[in-house]
Specification:
This protein has 437 residues and is an alpha+beta fold. It has 2 domains: 175 residues, Periplasmic binding protein-like II (D-Maltodextrin-Binding Protein, domain 2, 3-Layer(aba) Sandwich), CATH 3.40.190; 223 residues, D-Maltodextrin-Binding Protein, domain 2 (3-Layer(aba) Sandwich), CATH 3.40.190.10. The strands form 3 sheets. It has a 5-stranded mixed sheet with strand order 2-1-3-10-6. A 3-stranded antiparallel sheet has the order 8-7-9. Strand 4 and strand 5 form a beta hairpin. Helix 18 packs antiparallel against helix 19.
Length: 437
């Protein structure tokens, strides 16, 4: 009997061990940009180091990601264990109680190395709720060979008047080269990212200090008319379908002379495997008009763990790995220092290998350091954010305004009609929120 009991005990212990050894699945909601695709490619190394964790990737385009993450977190659905979000969502979602605080990070992670502006932006009431995967501002990318051929010189600080003249001179539609490409795809984080910075530098804002919407103001009309005219004359056809990824492809394949967008794009444009213009691209500060304030944005894509996560500890462990100094070195070994996730750590910019490989780094870092979410406009405003308005309702009305402006760009309505519709939608939103009496 003792022998049979012993055998049964061993069998039960073996079964328990097998159950315990079942790996925890971490489902990750991520955006389909080049840096994230590289992370997915390298992630089997994490799984090899952590055989008790299995990663399940849900990689979708930006607008879809935001909708799915917001829906899952707001309903407590528990579909995702780790989500990609940014400086807009982190404090708002944390305030709503949808995120777990990031704590008990290993000392080796060196949180003091992470730029304080990003830590602050990803915090709520002094507590950190997300770890930055990369940070970015916006800047001007241009083809130095095309400029030289036309004997054009890019100023250190270009203006939008300069951009219009350059775009006209550089457009050669017969050769398939457009003077400029910009975001046209509607969405608060797509076309409105760029359009809001354009409105800022033209002297406008989303609201005055009493939360009166300013979407139909003269500054908005001037900025949006400039944007629509510029793209219609010198941009690619079908511009309303172009977001970050589409414009990255256009520029990297040699079809655009200028592009104003995220500084993170430089890593791909400098990668000879990904870019046909790797040896022909140059960089300058984002253009300005009436004021330099708010002419370039501040953003970070970051990892956060939902309160409803089924494997929260495993999720945070992967987030720490993916945003560590070691991961940055891993990318450098795989694809070169120019392609590492930028904008998050001081040590990256102190590394001579990165400085040598990434001549765009000083322009990008200066842009990040001078973007001020607390003072984004010519006149004082009641909100926080450069290319966004840091209130929950912005996700909705920002996208509606983006759709109206895309309508004007597509020729389905006039700029005046688009701004009138945008003004009405924004007014409704802030009245419903109780911000405007």
């Amino acid at each position: 009997m003792k022998s049979a009991f012993a055998v049964l005990s061993v069998a039960l212990l073996g079964l328990a061990s097998a159950v315990c050894a079942e790996p925890k699945t971490v489902t990750i909601a991520a955006v389909n940009n080049p840096a994230m695709i590289e992370l997915k490619k390298l992630s089997p190394k994490f799984e090899a180091e952590n055989p008790d964790i299995k990663l399940n990737w849900v990689v979708v385009e930006e607008n879809v990601l935001r909708q799915r993450v917001t829906t899952d977190l707001s309903t407590g659905g528990g579909q995702f264990d780790l989500v990609f979000l940014g400086l807009y969502e982190a404090p708002i979602f944390a305030k709503s109680g949808w995120l777990r605080e990031i704590k008990d990070i290993p000392a080796s992670y060196d949180l003091t190395d992470v730029f304080k502006s990003l830590q602050d932006g990803l915090s709520y009431e002094g507590k950190l709720y997300a770890l930055p995967f990369y940070g970015e501002s916006s800047m001007l990318m241009y083809r130095k060979d095309l400029f030289e051929a036309k004997k054009l010189t890019m100023p250190e600080q270009p203006t939008y008047d300069d951009i219009s003249k350059f775009a006209e001179a550089l457009t050669d539609k017969q050769a398939g080269i457009y003077g400029i490409t910009l975001r046209g795809k509607p969405g608060w984080g797509e076309n409105m990212c760029f359009v809001t910075t354009l409105v800022n530098t033209f002297g406008g804002a989303w609201f005055d200090m009493n939360w009166n919407p300013l979407v139909d103001s003269p500054e908005w009309k001037k900025a949006v008319t400039f944007y629509v005219d510029l793209l219609k004359k010198y941009g690619p056809p079908g511009a309303t379908a172009n977001g970050f990824n589409e414009n990255l492809t256009l520029f990297a394949s040699g079809k655009a002379a200028m592009w104003i967008d995220a500084t993170v794009a430089a890593a791909t444009l400098y990668d000879k495997k990904e870019s046909q213009v790797a040896d022909k691209v140059a960089f300058a500060s984002a253009p300005i008009a009436a004021t330099p304030k708010g002419s370039h944005w501040l953003w970070s894509w970051a990892f956060a763990v939902p309160k409803s996560a089924k494997a929260p500890d495993a999720a945070q462990k992967f987030a720490v790995w993916a945003t560590s100094k070691e991961y940055i070195k891993m990318v450098a070994a795989d694809t070169g220092w120019a392609t590492v996730p930028p904008g998050t750590r001081k040590s990256t910019y102190e590394n001579p290998d990165y400085v040598k490989a990434a001549p765009f780094a000083p322009v990008a870092l200066k842009a990040m350091n001078t973007a001020d979410p607390n003072d984004p406009c010519k006149n004082p405003v009641p909100y926080h954010g450069v290319q966004l308005v840091g209130i929950p309702e912005f996700q909705s009305f920002g996208t509606v305004v983006g759709q109206s402006i895309a309508g004007a760009l597509a020729g389905n309505m006039t700029v005046d009609q688009a701004l009138k519709a945008g003004q009405a939608a924004t007014t409704r939103a802030v009245k419903q929120a109780g911000l405007l009496k």
